[in-house]
Structure formats: structure tokens, C-alpha cells
Write a structure and sequence with these properties.
eight-stranded antiparallel β-barrel, D-amino Acid Aminotransferase, Chain A, domain 1, Rossmann fold, alpha+beta
Amino acid sequence: MFSRVAIVNRGEAAMRLIHAVRELAAETGTRIETVALYTDVDRTATFVREADLSYDLGPASARPYLDLKALERALVATGADAAWVGWGFVAEDPAFAELCRESGIAFVGPSAEAMRRLGDKIGSKLIAEEVGVPVAPWSRGAVETLDAALAAAAEIGYPLMLKATAGGGGRGIRVITGDAELVDAYERTSQEAARAFGSGVVFLERLVTGARHVEVQVIADGQGTAWALGVRDCSIQRRNQKVVEESASPVLAPDQVAELKTSAERLALAVGYRGAATVEFLYHPGDRLFAFLEVNTRLQVEHPITESTTGFDLVKAQLRVAAGERLVGAPPVERGHAIEARLNAEDPDRDFAPSPGRIARLDLPSGPGIRVDTGVSEGDTIPADFDSMIAKIIAYGHDREEALGRLRRAMAQTTVIIEGGATNKSFVLDLLDQPEVIDGSADTGWIDRVRGEGRLVSHRHSAVALAAAAIEAYEEEERAERRRLLSTAAGGRPQVRHESGRPLDLKLRGVGYRVRVARVGPQRFRVGIEAGGVVRTADVELDRFDRHTGQIVVNGTRYRLLTATHGPTHLVEVDGVTHRVGRDEGGVVRSPAPALVVATPWRSATRSRPAHRSWCWRA
């Protein structure tokens, strides 16, 4: 076994390797060190602190994880005898595998030749056809000019996928429905792929509409044995990026699963593959037809669900076969069901734009059947230079219903506060409650379609969020006036300007609201939300447990509350639904007031008590 493994990755992937190495060292009684290769933005990151050794690659802006010379210097300087790449960066770069071989360092992955043959989307399709794996109609090679692309499109027929042979992660892919779109997208797709992956080669293939995305996890020892460990369903995607994955697929029959596994093993054996790989297919449930997509010559982000259903550690297996060990015995048997959701620092209200920042609060779930893979800790910063992954929440159950229930519970129990940022937690929770997710009918384009229809944009508890944000702003004004009073009193002329019930203009999801707050007790407030000429009011009690957490009672109804304020923005989470409330400088009201459980007119409610500014009760 290796004595020092360099991690050519960061974050959650790096921590996955560190955990596996420590377990392997404990099992074998062998000392194995890990080396974290990091950039300036990760200098104090969790994976750097947890690794045995670390090496500074320099500024993230220089993209050192893609710089082979910088990586070579790091491997030599740290004395590593193995390099693990995980997923992303150079994980599928045969040039890096060759660099390791030439430097006398074991590459924990396939040979450069196998990587080139299977990792190239064009080459892998040709091999798939040779070994009898079903392939959808395609251009049977690169389309090197626009004219060639138009000719191939005419032969295949629309709709099509224009894809970069080196693409991935949703980039370098375009859906094309006609000649005009192909003309417009050809150069842009090629250039995008060249910038992101170093190759602008593109090809065309038939778009299978209404399809499911299914993939087979393979581990092979390069000595004649390949195991297909399970079939995952990754159909719940947003713009070709996976959001929720599960194993096994809810739409495949046992004979279909066996067919896919056999096809995947044939592909791996055809090139003498060593290490972990994923063979991806599209499946059309109506026609019961499969179409080979590609081979990812690396471990996948979603590998934990296969580990959960098989009890087989894929990362330790990667290390063992890279060290020359063989796969012995029978493949592990799949049991139960596992579902994974990705928790990202991204803002669903801003079209899922990355929302990085410092993690002020991080409480991750636990309990029966729950696994959490993460690379961050409370106090860490999610940098803008890399992906926005916070954690993967994996739920295991004896069947799909139990796994789904556990995942809902775990996501609801997750608490993340990012200073100035946001997460997709409430989006995932809403997703898990959708009928198409519950019955397993969602295909790869489902999220994009339903969001286009206005679904999966949660407005639940929006009025409660507005009330909580208004109270926070009100209390901040109280504190400011208290400081002003004490400061001016010290000078002999005490002054205060605080006005109970002064209007606040707030904005939620692009809509402006006028909100008034009056304190009527130590933790009690009267809140009115005015919009479109209508005022809706409520009695509110706010009980804080600490700086960020608490509970809010609105007209007798209790909600769990999580709040964080960053400048003019209030992040408010009510019973797991997150809302970003900001100050509306324009004060423009463009929507009816949301209901606050009851809608008693404010003025009629004040008749039994002396009025303050004829608007609200005197505190």
C-alpha cells in the first residue's frame, strides 16, 4: 500500500479521500499520510487542516489544479508516491496520468490509454457500438465545421444535443431544435468547451426527450475482473446538472438492470480498465429503450448512494486496485434504497447563481440511515473561485419510501447560514414534496419545465418572513436610538428620534411591501403589511434562542425561525423555507399584501386603546 497520497482536489472530495485513507491505515496497521494541495482561498479550509501535510499551489486565480507543471512540482516536493484526483479538475486528463507514470508516482485511476479511449465521448461511443452497447443516432465523429454540423443534423434529425467531447458538469452542452439554433450555438459551444476543458471538439447526437438518466457504477482491477456494482437514477436535473440521485432506479425492471450491468462490464474489460468508472445511459420508459451516453473515467459525485446500498467503499477500492490488488470473490449485493441531495451555496431566487461567503452557522443532520459528506466546517469560507458544494445529504432506507422520508427529515434539520449568501435548502425540500419526485416519474427536463410554469418557487410563509425581517430591522433601529440616547445624555442633551410604527419598505423576490412594526411587550409586536391599498395585521411573539435561531408565533401559530442579517439583507428561514428580504430603497409596492393568518384591519383593532400617531398601539 502507498505511504503518502497527494490529493489533487479540494473541499468535500479531499475529505472523502482523507476519511478513506485513515480507515485503510487503521485496518491494515500501516501508516499512510495524506497531502492536501491547496490554493490561497483555501489556506485555512477544513481539508487543509485535516490532512497530514499540505502544499501551497498559489493563487486560485491562476487555476493551478489544471496546471500540470504546478502539479508536478507539488508531487515531487511533497514526496508523494500516489496521486488521487477524485472528480473534476484533472480527474479525466490522460496527460496528468502520464505525468504521474513518468514521475514514478502511482495514479489512482485508469491508465492514460484507457482514459483516452473511454473518456473521449466520441471514442467511447465507437467502442460501445463495437461491443454491442445500444447507442442513439449521432454524427459518428466530430463535426469540425459548421457545414459539417448542418449536414449531420439533416441526417440525424432534430431535436439534437450539441456536445463537447471533453465537456461535463452541464457545460459544453446545447439543445438544438433547428438549423438557426445550430448556427447560433456551434461556435459558442466550441469556444466554451475550449476555455473550460482545453478542447473545442464537438459532436451531435439525437436528443431523447422524456428520458431518464441512469448510470452504472463500475470498479475494475485491470487484471481481467470488472464489477458493475449498481445502477443509479440521476434524472432530477436542472440544466443538465444533477440535483437528486437515487439507487436503484425506480423505473427499471431487474432484467434491464442486469442488461445495463453486463454492458458496462464489457466496456471496461474492452480497454483493460483499472479503477472506478461510471457508464451513463439515457432510458426512455415509454419505448423501454436505452441509449449509451458516455463513460466518466473517474469516481462520481453521487458514488455514496452506491456505497450505501452495497456496503462497498469505492475510494478504498480505488486505492487497493491502484496498488495492484485484485477484485476477489463475488460482487457485493445491493440491498435497500438510497437517495442523495446536493446542498449548495447558491440562490434559487437569483436563478441559482453561486452565493459564496463565510459559514456563520453549520448544523448538519444525523440519525438513522443518514450520511453526510462535506468538506467545510463552521467558520470556513466558501470561495467564489470553485464549486458551491456545501454537503451531500444521503439517506438510506429498506425501501424508497423510507429513504425519501429520511432525506426530507434530514434536509429539514440542516442549518446553514452563509454571511451574505444563500443555499438551495428550501428548493430541495420543496423538490422532495413534488408528486413527480414521490412517484419517481420526473425525467431529465422536468425541473426546467415546471420552473417555467412557476412551480418550485416557494412562497410558503412569505408573510411570516416579512414580519420577522421587519422586526429585526425595527430592533436594530431601537438599538441605534438607545445608543444615541446614551451618547447624547452623556453630553447633557439627551435626544431620541425613535418612532414606533414608522414604515419600512422591504422587498421579497422582486416585490415591494410596506411593513410597520410596533412593540407591545418585551417579546411581543404588532405587525402590519401594506400593499395594493390593503393592510394585513398580526400579533407576533418572537422568542430568540441565540443570535440566529428561535421561534416566532404569529396569531397563535408557531414557526421555527432562523435569521441572519448582512447589511441591508435579511436571510429568514421559516420552517425550512428560506426567504431573502432586502430593503426596498424605492419603496414601490407592486403586489397585494400576503396573508398573515388573519387580516384584521389595523385601525379597527386600535379603537379600544389610545392610538399613537392614529396608527398603532402605544408600546
